Amino acid sequence: MPPADIVGGMRQEDIWDAYAAQHYDTPGTGMFAPDVLGPTVDRLAELAGGGRALEFAIGTGRVGVPLAGRGVPVTGIELSRPMIDQLRTKADESAIPVVNGDMATATAPGTYTLVYLVFNTISNLLTQAEQVECFRNAARHLEPGGRFVIELGVPELRILPPGQQGFVFASEPGYLGIDTYDVVRQHLVSHHFRFDDSRQATLFRTPQRYIWPAELDLMGQLAGFELESRHADWSGAEFTAESRSHVSVYRLPA
Question: In angstroms, how far apart are the furthest CA atoms of the chain?
């Protein structure tokens, strides 16, 4: 059996290289669309409550840059140096300081009213122990009464065909997305195929350790948090049994 921090033969630090960083941004579309970013930034600015915010896995600054533009002081932690380099094309160190390190262990200076993780990023930590440490690291950075916010998908095992290890989660012109599962180890790999009319295609794979909402809540309890709210999206839609993702807000005692 491969080491616990390897899924599908891949380590996170090897995935987010210069090529991935240069092709990550899709201005105005996908995760960068105004109807996606707008509610995200609005909610995070509200939760920061006039204080400082720390983004774990800040990446190229998809959320951190517009949040800082709203007047919220933002600091980041990011494992990938190429992703930080891409962020630096948008904001310098004085505008958004970034610590190069693992979000489960790295320390940023000062304290914060808000720590946040967006778009499934906690699942990039490939062991349960690392995910628990991520909660504890968030708690170490927060002021009393501070909040830790996580955006995360709900594992879609209900639609996994019996006896099969994967399914197509997206199919559109020029793109095919397939998730493959290891349900024993609670791992999945998302395979992103992009192609045109030629015979060639590009493949980008992202390994993850998926987390059930109840398991996430227990991680929060171990780090001293209590669940304050859970919604299906950043706009506050009700979280139900049919929700495919959630935005969960955890709070430390005041």
Answer: 59
